[in-house]
Amino acid sequence: MKNDNTSGATSVEQSPISRVVLMDTALLKAKATSRVEARRISLAPGFAAGYHVHNGPVFGSILEGSVILQVEGEPESLLEPGDPFYEPEGVPVRFDATDDGATFLAFFLLEVGQEPKISMLAG
């Protein structure tokens, strides 16, 4: 706290940096990550990607618009700008744009020589 001697008032100094943990998620299984690929991905309004699986864990954050995320066995959730997400490796997930469409950043954790792959599931 800083004492302002001229008025007798006390003020709190603001830090120039704010750090807030948005997500702290354990991986389903340990992964020897040698690199991370970041992608900016856009989904058209109302685009329903349907269920799919990734060959590695994917972390991300919604930049614009919104999506419905559902990880198999969990309730669906609405993600909006600033919301983080995690798609576990090998677990079916649904990531569908709402009527607003969506743009998001996705970070793919990759092993040596691995490239990100997505497999679409029927239904």
Automatic annotation (TrEMBL):
What name goes with this protein?
Cupin domain-containing protein
Query: Which InterPro entries does the entry mention?
Result: Cupin_2, RmlC-like_jellyroll, RmlC_Cupin_sf
Top-level division of the source organism's lineage = Bacteria
Where do the Cupin type-2 domain residues begin and end? 41-102
Q: Which Gene3D superfamilies match?
A: Jelly Rolls
